[in-house]
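Re: export button greyed out
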Amino acid sequence: MTTGSPTDPGAAAVSGGPAAGVVDLLGLLAYAELIAFFRLAGHADLAPTLSAKGELAALAAVEYEHYRRVHERLTRLGVDPESAMEPFVGPLDAWHARTEPQSWLEGLVKAYVGDGIAGDFYRQVAESADDDTRELVGGVVSENGRAEVIAARVREAVADDPKLAGRLSLWARRLVGEALSQAQVVAAQRVELAALLAGAGGRPAGGSEGAKGAGASDLGAVSRLFARLTDAHTARLEAMGLSG
Amino acid sequence: MTTGSPTDPGAAAVSGGPAAGVVDLLGLLAYAELIAFFRLAGHADLAPTLSAKGELAALAAVEYEHYRRVHERLTRLGVDPESAMEPFVGPLDAWHARTEPQSWLEGLVKAYVGDGIAGDFYRQVAESADDDTRELVGGVVSENGRAEVIAARVREAVADDPKLAGRLSLWARRLVGEALSQAQVVAAQRVELAALLAGAGGRPAGGSEGAKGAGASDLGAVSRLFARLTDAHTARLEAMGLSG
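Workaround output, generated via the alternate export path:
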């Protein structure tokens, strides 16, 4: 993705500022981390023990730190971070509203599945962006071993009570279905981001669609990217003792 | 408070572990920070802008970091942090349940008043504890200039709409009234903590009451401590353009 073409999403815009796709990616990531922080913290009442509440707070604090780094990067790029986040407030809030966990285990599965699929998504999209963005995104979405801890907890719970497996598998399927549905909304509305996605989907971005919306070929590439994300999701379910 | 008497709340217990009053103080502080983290984060829906949500997350993240430090200290002292926090879950949860902010401004006033009075309280009580505890508590409750920022926000809002002053002053009075009421409950139930409080209230701790409950003279000293806290609270209200 370093062809130097004006539609190259990883290249700086003519004005010398960052490419719009990169601004979208960082705005999306910043709001995703901020709302993940608030939503995780909001699950405190579900946590069964003081110790679980403390661990939950630790997970949330990590999301805040990620938000802070991406926010800082946007500011350094000369972009208003709040404007960059704004387009993604609706879709991300909608995802969270439709996937409100009703139990501690549902909350754990949501944290694991949500972080996992989001991490894969950001990393793949960032592959098509500039080096600095790729490095920032890679650092922010690295899981620091906490994913394994969460997966082990769910696996233990399912081993203790095998009836949970079916219910939690359905829940995980709903989480990813709602995520892909919101991601499609975003891809259809944000042409520059869709171009980055298309790069991540395995074909060169750009083309002759202009700036009105993502072209059909971009959306095809986006679907291929989503298919890869779903495969990784299935592996993640198995790590929790669930089925895809 | 270094008389070496067995009832000296700053001295190590006979077993070589930390004094029970110190464990109580740190347990109280740890849970207060943890629940403040969750409650602050829970106000996200009240924040009027994305930028305000980000600042709120930053405030909450500071509370988490404080919790982490106190939790770590308890562990290092050989104390189970969750057991140390447990006695204070009821009173602190009750305070938060009775002081649920209904607007962004009420949330700001609560953060300012709550942090302020809690900070004064912890610092004064820690004066009677050992050096390490005093240093930890002082560091954890230092306000880092954010109190001034919050006070300025409220002052501006009240200057714009003077009708707010009466309502917010009543709100602040309720916050401190409920806090003192819960603190009395705690002081009556936790004899070792009450002894530390009595030290902070201006008379030596200990006496012949045994371990059944705080003696009347301790509770008198506690009341004097609360009177000083209330004076500081009034000064804080004035900083927000409110009356006591």
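The first helix of chain A runs from residue 20 to 41. The button fix ships in the next patch.
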